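Subgroup meeting minutes
Present: P.N., E.W., G.H.
Scribe: E.W.

1. P.N. recapped why we're keeping a running log of single-chain structure predictions: easier to compare across weeks, and new members can see raw inputs and outputs side by side.
2. G.H. added today's entry (300 aa).
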Amino acid sequence: MSIRAEHLTYLYGEGTAFEQYALKDVSFEIGDGEFIGLIGHTGSGKSTLIQHLNGLLRASSGKIYYNGEDIDQEGYDRRNLRSKVGLVFQYPEHQLFEVDVLSDVCFGPKNQGLSREEAQVRAKEALMQVGLEERFWDQSPFELSGGQKRRVAIAGVLAMQPEVLILDEPTAGLDPRGRDEILEEIAGLHRDKGMTIVLVSHSMEDIARYADRILVMNHGEKRFDGPPREVFGHYKELEEMGLAAPQITYVVQKLREHGISIPEDITTVEEAKDGILRLLKSEKAKWSSGQIVGKAGNGE
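Output recorded in log:
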C-alpha cells in the first residue's frame, strides 16, 4: 500500500476575488505500515490535505496516487478508495445516527454490498478492536460517554476494513483517561494489525510518543518531513509557525545549558528517563573507578 502526493495544490474560491491557497505544491509519500503524525497551526492546510487522500476533495493541480493509480483518472472507483482509506473526522460521534451501536457500525459494510450477517461479523470485530464491551452493543450510541461514542465512530470506519486509517484530532474534547485509551487503541491497530495510520493532532507529546514520522504544514506548504527526533530538533522554527516541541524537549535543553550531558534529541518522557539513568550509571562508574585508582595510589 502506498499513497503518493505530487505537487498538490488546492485553491479555495478559485477564479474569484476571494481565491486563496489552502495547499501549495505539496509532495510526499506514505508507505505501507507507517504511523504518520500530521501537525500544523489552525489554517495550515492539515484538514484540507487529508480530504485529498481519499478523494473527498479534488486538487486544483497536482496528483494523488493510491497504489500507483491516479485517483483522478477517468473511471477510477473513488467509492472503493474511501473504503480503503478510512477518514475519521474531528468529533465523529456527531455522525452517529442509528438506533443502537451495532447497527451504526454495520452501516458502512452494508453500503459496501455485504449481507446483514457479513456486516455484523465485521461490526463486531471492529467493536472489539476499539475495546468497546459487548454489553454496550445494543444500546443507543447517544447514551454512551464521549469516549465510548468516539470508539463507536472509529469502529464504523474500521468495519469497512481500510488499509489506511486517517484520524483528525481523534482525542479532541475527551478527558485524559479517554484520550489515552483512544490513542492506545489506535497504536494497537498499527502495532498488531500493521495498519497505516495518519494522526492529525495538536498534542506534540502524543505525536512524539506514537508517530514514526512527522509531516509539518504551514500556510498550505510542507515545511518538515522526517522522524520526530529530527523534526522536533527544529523547535525554534516550529515556534515561529505557532507550534512547539514536546515539553520534555525544553526541559532537556535547560539541563544541557546547565552542563548536564543528556542527549539533545530526546522527545518523550520515557527517553528522558532512560537518558538520565544512563548518565547516572556512567557517572557512578567513573566515580567508582576514581576511588579505586585513588586507593591503589595510596598503596592499599
